[in-house]
Structures are given as C-alpha cells and as structure tokens.
Design brief:
The protein is an alpha+beta fold. It contains 9 helices and 4 strands; from the N terminus they run ααααααββααββα. The longest helix has 23 residues. The protein is elongated, with a radius of gyration of 30 Å. 12% of the residues are buried.
Length: 195
Amino acid sequence: MHTKLWSDMFLLGLPVLEKVLRPAIVYLFLVIALRLAGKRELAQLNPFDLVVLLTLSNTVQNAIIGDDNTVTGGLIGASTLLLINYFVVRVLYGHEKIERLVEGEEDVVIDKGKIRMERLKAELITLPELEAAAHRQGFATLEEVERAVLEPGGTLVFLRKEPPPEETRHQELLARLNQIARELAQLRPRPASPA
C-alpha cells in the first residue's frame, strides 16, 4: 500500500520532456492570445472579463499536466512556467521594441479633458466602465480628469486637472465674497470722528 502511494505521488506517468513542453506551449499560446485579446482582458473591467481569466487557468490545466497527476509532474510543470516567465522578463528588460511588440503600447482614452470615444470603442471600454475606474481612483466625475491612459498591462491611470474644478470654484466664491464684503464696507455709514 505504501509503495503504491509513493509511486502514485512521485513516479511520472509522462516523459519529462513532455512535462516541460506542455507548459511551454500553453505559456506561449496564452501570451499571444492575451496580446490579441487586448488590454481589456488584463484590466478586468467587468465581471465577464474576470470570469474569463479565472476559468482560463482551469481550461488549460489539463493541457499543462496531461494525464499525469503526480506531485513530481506538477512541480516540473510549475517550474517550467516560472523559468519561462523568468527568461521572458529578462529578455524584455532593456529591449523596448520587443517589449512593445509583446505587451503593446499605451492608449490615451482622455486627452486634455476630452474623452476620446473612438479609443474607448477600439478598446471595448464603455463610458460607465471608465467612470467606475475613475471613481476607484478618487475622482468624483470624469470632468476632473485631464488625461487617462490605458497602459499595456491593462491598468487605467488618471491624471487630475490642475487645479481641480472644486478648488477653482472655491477660489471664485472666495473672491466674490471678498468683493461683496468690500462693497458692503463702502456702503456702511462711517461713525463721526470726535473732534
């Protein structure tokens, strides 16, 4: 009984080369597929995108491990994925052209306070999704945003208008109140000075 337990856990059911090739092929496929799917898949802007990413790992699991459910096979598959990723990151580091080819380029969706609807449409981002992303970063409305960029990794980055609209309104109100106070002071009769 103990021998079967140990053999089931550690003796590979597939050749080691196959255990290395399977995760390598799946890794390459996923990098290409996610690149073609666009930045939206990485941004997880809605529940549907999140479900796709979560089920994707389960979908390719059997392709990575095959018919082998041993601990050794799992460790070889996981090690292969980690090593491939390590080398890909090392190769991309310092090679901007290759990195842009693999990861893509940033996409400006709001520029100078103006929403670029054609860019939102190209990235399949709805206006409510853009507003929700802005709210998560502390913006009350999109009117406060000077620039918004969808980065290659799927992150939306928002830059605030300077100064913020509330600050401008606040300063205008203070200036008006000061003007009214000065005008009221001029209208009030001045007390007679004792001679």
